[in-house]
Amino acid sequence: MSDLLDDLEARVGALGSAVVAFSGGVDSSLVAAVAARALGDRALAVTAVSPALASGELSGARGVAAAVGIAHRTITTDELARAEYRRNDRFRCYHCKTELYGRLLAVAAADGYAAVLSGAIADDLGDWRPGLRAAAEHGVRHPLLEAGVDKRQVRALARDLGIPSADKPASPCLASRLPYGTRVTPEALARIDLAERGVRSLGFREFRVRHHGLLGRVEVAADELDRALANSAEVTAAVLDAGYARAEISRRPFRSGSLNVVHV
To answer: 89 and 28 in one domain?
Structure first.
C-alpha cells in the first residue's frame, strides 16, 4: 500500500494546491488526508451544507478534518432551488453536483486554489453516476479514480493512515432515499432524516429508510437484518414517529445503489 500512497501523493502534490469536496465519508476523507500530506496548508476541505445532508454528517466531517490535519470550511448549497433537481429524474445527481462543483470552483477561484478534487473511486464506474458528468464539465479531478483505487483499497489505506472514517458505512445524501420520480422536498428530506435518526438510536449501523410517500421502508444490512426483524415493533415505531403513516422492514438486505439498478 505504500507505493499506492506515494502515487496518490505525487498526483495531488503536482497540482500545487486544491480544494477537496469533503463529505467526511471514507473516500473523500482519504483524498483529504492525501491532500494534507502532499500540499500542507495549500489544501482545503469543504463540506456542503443543505437539507439533503443527514444529521451528524457535518460534525463527523469536522472531526475527520481535524484528525487528518486539513483546513476545513463549510458552504451552503441550494440544489433545491433547481427545478431539475426537485423533479428527481435519473439525472438528479447531475444537477446536485452541478450546484456543488459550481460553488467549489468559486471558492477555489476566490482563494487561489488550482484544482477541485472529488472522492470518486474506480467502483463508481460500475454504477449509475451522472455526477461524474457534472465533474467533467467543471474540470474536477478524481485522484482515486485516476489511480484505479477501489473501495477495498480505500479502506485499507484509510486504516493505515488512522483516518477515523476508515470503516464508516457510506452515507449518501438524503435524496438518494427517494425513488426516481418522487419529488424532492424539504419536508420529505426532513422526515427521512428523522426516521433514520430514530432507527440509528436503536443501534443499527448500516441501513436506509426509503421514502415511498406515506410509507417508510427500512432496508437493513444483511448482518443486522435478523435483529431488525426480531425487533420490528421498535424499528417501525421509530419510522412512524418521524411522521410516516405506515412503516415496514424489507426482507431483502440493504444494498447500496439498489434504486439505480434499472438505470445502469
So the answer is: yes
Residues 255, 216, single domain; the answer is: yes
Full pLDDT tens readout for the chain, 264 residues: 789 999 999 999 999 999 999 999 999 999 999 999 999 999 999 999 999 999 999 999 999 999 999 999 999 999 999 999 999 999 999 999 999 999 999 999 999 999 999 999 999 988 789 999 999 999 999 999 999 999 999 999 999 999 999 999 988 999 999 999 999 999 999 999 999 999 999 999 999 999 999 999 999 999 999 999 999 999 999 999 999 999 999 999 998 755 554 443
Instruction: Please write down the HEC assignment for all residues of the chain.
Output: CHHHHHHHHHHHHCCCCEEEECCCCHHHHHHHHHHHHHHHHHEEEEEEECCCCCCCHHHHHHHHHHHHCCEEEEEECCHHHCHHHHHCCCCHHHHHHHHHHHHHHHHHHHHCCCCEECCCCHHHHHCCCCHHHHHHHHCCECHHHHCCCCHHHHHHHHHHCCCCCCCCCCCCCHHHHCCCCCCCCHHHHHHHHHHHHHHHCCCCCCEEEEEECCEEEEEECHHHHHHHHHCHHHHHHHHHHCCCCEEEECCCCCCCCHHHHHHC
Number of domains into which the chain is organized: 2
